[in-house]
Design a protein that fits this description.
By secondary structure, the chain is of the alpha/beta class. 46% of the residues lie in helices and 13% in strands.
Length: 250
């Protein structure tokens, strides 16, 4: 699992570990990663934690090779990476676009290419991409995220067709507002006499039919389901988990 030391990635790893999965996890921050690995091991499974920058081809290759060597196979791949900055189109120069491309599209391409041969060898596999509900509905100031994650959607649809004969499913999860550090980055700065961050979150929740911000554990439950045999006939889909916030028909 990529980017599993905190936030959505950590919640997914914890739930998969509780279901008995052995896990290989990575993140850039070694201290946070090792602390998360220690928590995961309390569930009794094996956990391999390797500090990795997914924008680095060499580090990603080392991570995948180590996971395959440690466990003998790779059954599930959860692609997850931190989102790029928010802002207006004209606020981003070419270097910002290149960085977002490497983080939110090329990193998924790269690790898919490395992992798919291992899944084909076993005749089974689950690839789950965590993206954003901005691929389903308008999200202000998300031009970097929306543009690159739409590429992930297209890739997943193609891979679902190509890998279907190998019994490998490929799906995307498009989370809406979920209570992690990332959601706070979407809020405007607090000003003297203005609303607090908590007030801003409460105001945002008013636009969600269920009337609240989502919990990381709720997304993790969907990841765990898609990784299970119960989801064996679901592939090529993009499933939003947003409390009904997206008003898109399709």
């Amino acid at each position: 699992m990529l980017a599993a030391s905190k936030g959505l990635g950590k919640a997914c790893a914890m739930m998969l570990a509780a279901e008995g999965a052995d896990l290989a996890i990575c993140a850039r921050d070694k201290t946070t990663l090792e602390a998360t690995a220690a928590e995961l091991r309390t569930h009794g499974g094996r956990v391999l934690a390797i500090p990795t920058d997914v924008k680095s081809p060499d580090e990603t290759a080392i991570f995948v090779a180590a996971a395959a060597a440690e466990f003998g196979k790779i059954d599930i791949l959860v692609n997850n990476a931190g989102g790029p900055p928010f802002g207006k189109f004209e606020s981003f120069d070419e270097s910002a676009w290149q960085s977002a491309f490497e983080l939110n599209l090329l990193s998924f391409v790269r690790i898919n290419r490395l992992v798919i041969p291992h899944m084909r060898g076993t005749g089974n596999g689950r690839i789950i991409n965590i993206i954003s509900f901005s691929v389903k509905t308008f999200l202000e100031n998300s031009v970097l995220s929306t543009s690159l994650r739409m590429g992930v959607v297209g890739m997943a649809k193609m891979l679902a067709t190509e890998l279907g004969p190998d019994n490998i499913t490929v799906n995307n999860i498009a989370p809406g507002p979920i209570l992690t550090d990332r959601i706070y980055h979407t809020l405007p700065p607090v000003t003297p006499g203005g609303p607090s961050k908590e007030d801003m979150l409460a105001e945002r929740a008013k636009d969600i039919p269920l009337g609240r911000i989502g919990k990381p554990e709720e997304l993790a439950a969907l990841v765990t389901f898609l990784a299970s045999p119960l989801a064996g006939y679901i592939s090529g889909t993009t499933i939003q988990i947003d409390g009904g916030a997206s008003r898109s028909i399709l």
